[in-house]
Amino acid sequence: MPTFREVQYYLAGLWLLIRMDARGFQYLDISDRGMLRSFWAILWSLPSIGISWLWWQQAYLTAMPPETSTGMAFFFRLALVEAASWLAPLIFAGVLLMIFRFGDKFAPIVVVVNWLGLPTSYLNSLLIALLAYVPGSSGLAAILWLALMMAIIFSLARILRMICGTHPLFVGALTLILLIPTMLLTDFLQRFLGIYPPG
User: Fold this and answer.
1) Which of 79, 78, 160 is nearest to 113 (CA)?
2) I need a surface site. Which of 29, 38, 180, 181 has the fewest CB within 10 A?
3) Are 81 and 192 in contact (CB under 8 A)?
């Protein structure tokens, strides 16, 4: 498992890539081994993921009849949704890369997407905490969520441009494939698995 110092190093590399500085690649292990190690970002994200799960459980129970209870099965289903939303976009991106013969870009893209997911997860948990503990903050939280999404799109597009070169249509399509399926799949699976608050 990467140490905290290594994670800081990786995030510094991402920041350089967002700034269109190619030196950022020197901070990241974009080999096949580095690609596999980047999935440790999921474990590093567990505290923030746990916050979002607890908030979702509370939202679910609030919308359900008073006698409703949740157990480990509820959190297991949330874990399935989380795993699918993390892995499916990478699979879709891999297919697109193979179709357009950019297969050699798959490893670096997986690395940057996984490590970019780490700060994104913690920023999302901060917004959840704002929504949960600050009364009347739903409007502000919605604006901040929109700002966060725009920042993610902007950052990811710039990093993908550094990896894939100046192919604006391809970079745009790849950015959408890495973001849109996550939102659609998450909503679908939550409803399918019965963990979506009614109403």
Assistant:
1) 160
2) 180
3) no
pTM value is 0.91
Rounded to the nearest 10 degrees, the angle between the axes of helix 138-164 and helix 4-18 is 80
pLDDT by residue for the chain (199 residues), tens only, comes to 889 999 999 999 999 999 999 999 999 999 999 999 999 999 999 999 999 999 988 888 888 888 777 889 999 999 999 999 999 999 999 999 999 888 899 999 999 999 999 999 999 999 998 888 888 888 898 999 999 999 999 999 999 999 998 888 999 999 999 998 888 888 899 889 888 877 5
**Residues 28/13, Cβ–Cβ less than 8 Å:** yes
Q: What is each CA distance from 180 to 54, 133, 174, in whole angstroms?
A: 24, 29, 10
C-alpha distances (whole Å) from 17 to each of 20, 45, 151, 153 are 5, 21, 14, 14
CB neighbours of 91 closer than 8 A, spacing ≥ 6?
Answer: none
Nearest to 160 by CA among 95, 105, 115: 105
User: Which alpha helices (DSSP H) does the chain contain, by range?
Assistant: 4-18, 32-37, 40-44, 46-63, 72-99, 106-133, 138-164, 168-192
Give the three-class secondary structure for 4. Answer: helix
